[in-house]
Write a structure and sequence with these properties.
The chain is of the alpha/beta class and about 950 residues long. It is built from 32 helices and 35 strands. The strands form eight sheets. Strands 12, 16, 17, 18, 19, 20, 21, 22 and 23 form a nine-stranded mixed β-sheet that branches. Helix 12 packs across helix 17 and helix 21 crosses helix 26. The chain is globular and about 115 Å long.
Length: about 950
């Protein structure tokens, strides 16, 4: 035992000594001979420090402190430099570096102007900018609200140029320091202050300044801090860069926690394994290549990486915690060659091809866009690429699209171009017929340089799926970036796209043009009035002629039968056109329903999962409101679909045995949140003599009650809303929804049950709504052999009453099971989920997480078939999406049924029309579930098929 202790002790001392020696030698190991000589000959560097707590400051004029101060201390340990602190105001420090009186400023924001006299290091820390105002000021929510007002800001703040450019009407009060800015605000000489949250909050707290509040500015990206070095000292800049990059991620996190608390490092930290963390520690810097001329995706401009991928890379740097350095190239082909030769570790954006797989791995796609055809303006729309396969079609050299098209269309006439711009110029000049590429890139270039001469004239079935590619001899790199990509939420992704794709037009109102338009409209109006007078005069003449001719026509009956036949045929044609129009509208609504239901599934599904986690009351309240709002939007979608079905005569009633008390309870639970939010009493009066088990359409009864109760709560500001259920005679049940709201006039009641109708326009503006709820409710009541009417008085309240035929159920006790508990009986059952949407995959995994069901994922129909063929006996059930790339759910089901006729296949799709449900059953599926996912229905179906 004693020997073991001694050996352990010796080993500990040995390893501690090794670590100490390695720290001492890191400077010699990392630096070139030229750099070591520079440190030897210039051991002291002059550092400009302002009092910018807690970012950087000096207590005694000799040492440095703060977040960035600690970063600089670590660099000094590694490099061997000593420092001389020049403590001064910010404006004086910038002036000193520009005039070469100091060597570096440790904490600086990037501005283009300063590049003339300094060298920027890597970004190593971010500080959010805030707008501060007086506590009682509720008029300012953004920089836009400061136009015409006074904004206090310190001299030489890095944001001044950008604010002036974007908001020219803002008036500035330039201050020497933060204290002066605070005094201006408190003395009403400025309306707001613009500065970093970190520093301003510290100043306000330490000086106990009350009456000032701050909000985050959202106009500009969160700025990064850089070490700023004198421009004529590139060797010093290189040494400091190496020192900064050598600081471990653990040490960076320790510094942030010391000054800002644990939340500073937990916000974006990924759940990396120990092996992945060690890899990053050793890697220190990741080398990146990009396509140098592919906007808006990416570009090298003045040596910097810009575009969509640049915004993503900035996020990745924050999340993985080490630097990503750009390796400049002139063409995409050169970038691919450097990646192949291991001169680059990653390609920021690349398509997954078999050729590239020989030297690169690929993450899952994080950008997807259709492939489109750009031609000269005026070319008819191209439905199929085969229409133009013999024409000259341009594709950028080195792009994966070239090989893909050649494989799919061997005889296609492809012309390689140097870039998208080169391709579009060739189209414009008639040298090639069309240019093929990603829709985002082509639209961006057309809007920028070819508006009016080039247009998008067609679309291919294929989509451009862009991933991040990593060198395949370092597989951990792929795993790390995959985690980084999955951690980015959809709102952030959309914001990045909006930054580069959304077009902004700022035009002044041309009042001269408006007057010209008004004059033209007046002349046209006068002409129309004169024309109407002439027509009226002419009509009198025609009326006389018609009367004379009518006398003659009365005597002519021989051709009457033929005329009737022609008229009948014309009416039949009109009827067919009307039916076709109705079908087109129905198809459009079905498609819109699908497109809306897909993101709605994400919102409702993620809300459901979030509510199952541990939340504080505030978070739970927010998520409940999100879920409630989403379900409200879903209700509007369902109303529109029901309206479409009513017009097409396809709305039907389905009858089942159900428990009325359960239906009422569910409806009240949905309405209770809205009523409580308005401090309204929600009262239910259920006749004790009334049976609880009935036979009818419980879903439609719920729909009517929800419509009526939602309206009652919406139009009631004080008092109560009540629901009363009684039986008036055998098989007739009466429902009454009464409120103490704004009430209705008789004229409003007369128009109340019409489609798209509200009480009046002011009601729509004030309370919102589609105006379909009552129209649909009346149709549903009629279909259930009932009637609906309303009693109301203005400013007193409204009473909606409906009676329906509702027979008593022949089943005495309708089972009310707890399916969530029963789901645990399905532990170790294995299912295959076929779904291309990553968010939907995550929702299904989250809903079934506690059940113990084993879930495998296939991203499309073809992948599902391949997995099923290999593991035919592994799965007890398949959940199948319908609309997917490569192969849809119908075709996948057909192929699987050829292999196995018995395995249950459940459609889970945003195609919510009844015709879609029939189509899925005809395709060989056992059940049809709609998105957003109804968790209870999902549980019921899984229990039905997996408990066998």
């Amino acid at each position: 035992m004693k020997k073991t202790f001694i050996v352990t002790k010796l080993l500990s001392i040995f390893f501690i000594n090794i670590l100490l020696v390695s720290n001492l030698l890191s400077y010699d190991f990392n630096l070139t001979q030229e750099e070591r000589d520079y440190v030897k000959n210039n051991p002291i560097i002059k550092v400009g420090v302002e009092q910018w707590k807690p970012a950087i400051y000096s207590n005694n004029g000799k040492d440095i402190d703060g977040v960035t101060g600690d970063f600089l201390k670590e660099i000094l340990k590694l490099t061997g430099f000593k420092i001389k602190v020049i403590n001064d105001k910010w404006s004086n420090i910038i002036f000193a570096l520009e005039n070469k009186s100091i060597d570096i400023i440790p904490a600086t924001y990037f501005t283009k102007e300063r590049e003339k006299f300094g060298l920027y290091g890597d970004s190593y820390f971010k500080i959010k900018d805030f707008i501060y105002m007086r506590q009682n000021n509720n008029e300012i929510d953004s920089l836009k609200d400061l136009e015409g007002k006074i904004l206090a800001i310190t001299k030489n703040n890095g944001r001044i140029t950008e604010i002036k450019k974007n908001f020219p009407k803002i008036k500035f009060a330039f201050t020497k320091d933060y204290n002066e800015a605070i005094n201006l605000l408190l003395n009403n000489k400025a309306d707001a202050i613009y500065d970093s949250q970190l520093t301003m909050d510290t100043m306000l707290r330490e000086n106990m300044v009350l009456g000032i509040k701050g909000i985050a500015q959202t106009t500009f990206k969160t700025p990064s801090l850089h070490i700023f070095t004198q421009i004529d000292k590139p060797i010093l800049h290189s040494i400091l860069q190496k020192g900064l990059r050598a600081i471990s991620k653990q040490k960076r996190d320790e510094i942030k926690v010391k000054w800002l608390g644990a939340s500073a490092v937990n916000e974006d930290i990924l759940n990396l394994t120990l092996e992945q963390k060690e890899y990053l520690e050793n890697k220190k810097i990741i080398k990146m290549c990009i396509d140098p001329n592919w906007m808006p995706f990416e570009k090298i401009e003045n040596g910097k990486h810009i575009g969509i991928s640049a915004d993503y890379i900035e996020l990745f740097i924050q999340k993985i915690g080490i630097s990503i350095a750009l390796i400049p190239t002139k063409t995409w082909v050169e970038s691919l060659e450097k990646a192949k030769n291991r001169e680059c570790d990653i390609l920021a954006l690349a398509s997954n091809t078999s050729k590239r797989k020989k030297y690169m791995n690929f993450t899952k796609p994080y950008l997807t866009s259709p492939i489109v055809i750009a031609t000269r303006a005026g070319i008819p729309f191209i439905n199929d690429l085969k229409q133009i396969i013999d024409k000259k079609l341009g594709v950028t050299k080195g792009y994966s699209l070239h090989k893909k098209l050649k494989k799919q269309y061997p005889s296609i006439n492809l012309i390689e171009t140097d870039s998208i711009q080169d391709g579009l110029k060739k189209v414009e000049n008639g040298k090639i017929f069309a240019c093929l590429d990603d829709s985002i890139a082509l639209n961006y270039e057309i809007q920028k340089n070819f508006l009016g001469t080039i247009a998008i004239s067609g679309k291919l079935e294929d989509k451009h799926k862009l991933t991040l590619a990593t060198r395949n001899d370092e597989p951990l790199l792929t795993q790390i970036f995959q985690k980084a990509i999955l951690s980015i939420d959809s709102a952030t992704k959309q914001k990045i796209l909006n930054n580069w794709i959304a077009l902004k037009y700022e035009k002044e109102i041309d009042y001269g043009l408006i007057w010209k338009i008004l004059i033209v409209i007046s002349i046209v109006g006068i002409f129309i009035i004169y024309r109407q007078w002439l027509l009226k005069k002419q009509n009198k003449k025609l009326q006389y002629i018609v009367e004379e001719k009518t006398k003659d026509l009365k005597e002519i009956n021989e051709n009457l039968e033929n005329k009737i036949k022609k008229r009948t045929k014309a009416l039949e044609i009109e009827k067919e056109k009307a039916q076709e129009a109705t079908q087109i509208k129905s198809d459009f609504l079905a498609n819109m329903s699908h497109e809306i239901r897909t993101p709605m599934n994400g919102i409702i599904g993620m809300s459901h999962l979030a509510l199952k986690t541990t939340l504080n009351n505030k978070q739970k309240n927010y998520i409940q409101k999100i879920e409630s709002s989403a379900k409200g939007l879903l209700g509007i979608i369902n109303d529109i679909l029901d309206f479409s079905k009513i017009e097409a005569g396809k709305l039907t009633i389905e009858k089942i045995n159900f428990d009325m008390s359960k239906i009422i309870s569910n409806v009240i639970n949905l309405m209770e949140f809205n009523a409580t939010a308005k401090n309204l009493k929600l009262i239910v009066n259920y006749d004790k003599k009334l049976d609880k088990n009935f036979y009818g359409d419980s879903l439609r009864i719920s729909q009517i009650l929800i419509n009526l109760l939602e309206n009652a709560i919406k139009f009631t500001n004080t008092g109560e809303v009540s629901l009363k259920i009684t039986q008036t005679e055998k098989n007739i049940v009466r429902f009454e929804v009464k409120d103490t709201g704004i009430g209705l006039s008789q004229n409003q009641i007369d128009n109340l049950f019409q489609s798209f109708s509200q009480a009046d326009a002011t009601t729509t503006r004030k309370y919102g709504g589609t105006g379909l709820g009552l129209f649909i409710s009346k149709k549903l009541v009629n279909l259930m052999q009932g009637k609906i009417w309303v009693k109301s008085k203005v400013d007193i309240g409204t009473n909606f009453i409906f009676e329906i035929e509702l027979p008593k159920s022949h089943i005495e006790n309708i089972e009310q099971s707890n399916n969530e508990i029963k789901m645990k009986s399905l532990k170790d059952k294995t299912i295959l989920v076929v779904e291309d949407n990553l968010i939907n995959q995550e929702i299904i995994l989250g809903i079934l997480e506690d059940s113990g069901i084993i879930i495998d994922i296939a991203n499309n129909g073809q992948e599902a078939i391949d997995i099923f063929k290999t593991n035919k006996n592994k799965y007890q059930l398949i959940i199948m999406d319908i609309q997917m790339p490569i192969m849809n759910g119908y075709e996948a089901t057909k192929r699987i049924r050829e292999i196995d006729k018995n395995i249950p296949i459940i459609a889970l799709t945003a195609n919510a029309m009844k015709e879609d449900a029939i189509k899925t059953l005809k395709a060989g599926m056992n059940e049809h579930l709609n998105k957003p996912i109804d968790v209870e229905n999902l549980y019921k179906i899984l229990l039905k098929y997996l408990q066998i």
